[in-house]
Amino acid sequence: MARKYSKSAGKDVEREMRAFKQGKLKSGKGGRGGKVKSRKQAIAIGLSEARKEGKKVPKKTTGRRKKKSGARRKKHSTRKA
I need a labelling partner for 21 at 20 to 30 A (CA). Which of 34, 36, 60, 69 fits? Predict the structure, then answer.
C-alpha cells in the first residue's frame, strides 16, 4: 500500500508540533491570529504548510452531509379495505 503522506510532509508537521510545545506557534496570516492552543490545530498548520510546498498530502476533507435516517420514509399502506 502506498504512503498517504510524504516523509517531508511528516517533518513539516513535526516542526510545527515542536513550535507548539514550546509555545511559539501562532495561527493566521503572519501569526496574527494568536497562540495555537490545540494539538489538532498544530497538525493542521503543518499539513497546510506541506500542501503549499507541493508535498504529497491528501486533500482537505470538507464537511460532508450525513445521510438521512430511514425514519423519514413514507409509510405505505399494504392493507386493503
Answer: 60
Cα–Cα distance measured from residue 27 to residue 7, given in angstroms and rounded to the nearest whole number: 24
Cβ density class 28-49: b for 16+ within 10 Å, e for less: eeeeeeeebeeeebbebbbbeb
Distances (CA, A) of 56 to 15, 20, 30, 34, 41: 17, 23, 24, 28, 19
Question: What is the distance between the alpha carbons of residues 66 and 3, in angstroms, rounded to a whole number?
Answer: 28
Residue type, 47: L
Residue range 38-51, pLDDT digits in tens: 999 999 999 999 99
User: What is the rounded average pLDDT for all residues in the chain?
Assistant: 86
Asked whether the whole model's pTM tops 0.70, one would answer: no
